Amino acid sequence: MLTDQECSDIIKKNFPELNVVNFKILGNGMYSVACLVNDNIVFKVPINNEDKCNDVKKEVFLLKKLENKLSFEIPRILYDKEIDSGRIIGETLVHGVTYTQELHDSFDEETKTDILHQLGRIVHELHSVKIDNREGVLSVSDYKDTISVFHKYFSDDVKKCFSDSDLDRINKVCDRYEYLSIHYPVDPVLVHADLHFCNMTFDTENKKIVGLLDWAAAHLSEPARDMHYYYGEGAKAFLDGYGDNGDPYLPKRQKFQCIINFLSNIGEDIQNNKSPDKNIKKLLGVL
Description:
- The structure is a single chain.
- The protein is α+β, with helices and mostly antiparallel strands and 287 residues long.
- The protein is 44% helix and 17% strand.
- It has a 5-stranded antiparallel sheet, with helices on both faces.
- Helix 7 crosses helix 9 (250-271) and helix 9 packs antiparallel against helix 10 (277-286).
- The longest helix has 22 residues, at 250-271.
- The radius of gyration is 20 Å and the shape is globular.
């Protein structure tokens, strides 16, 4: 892992025009180190990884395409350079505090409902943006990719956690999703694809979602790809905010995406020798 000094030296070497007044490490990921420079620029210093370098390329492409097209704040690319270990980028710090699950849980029900309604509007706005992808930088996925992911996470180890009747119910949801996808297809839209709370910023004074972070997973897919975090208790407020997109089967597609998410969580629990009971209960609640 890179040290503070190594990260600082890399940034200064590659961007000598930048006067580094202060510097701190925000976090260490698998593929990069996030650094805050001068209190307002976030640099992602790469750790040698070619696949992640491609993700950064997509993120830079998309953020530049989205500049000045959204009513909420997103990072703006200020610095971008290929280096030996990958691609280093510097982007504006998005205002607000990180909107954690703990922060969400601290609000009363009326405030939670309003925030989920806001989020539905934000996601609908994102899905309405038209992106020129003629260069093929962004990947495009369809229902076959979604079903492939489902089977990947619905592994033998995960199946052992369910009764035969529950396995049958899960498979029926998959069959229903496949039927709808074939006979009632939807056009792909731009999806963020990682819309959990920690990738949002929040204005605590006005209780508003003000920004979206971490666009590395964004691609073109069905709208429901962005909705699996908001199924169940908060679904009505979210979907009311999202509005009518002309797809009467959106909640069913959302349900299948939600099941995939919980199957993934169960698999991670098993792999990490943790009890999967909590996520099993959540998945069965969706069924």
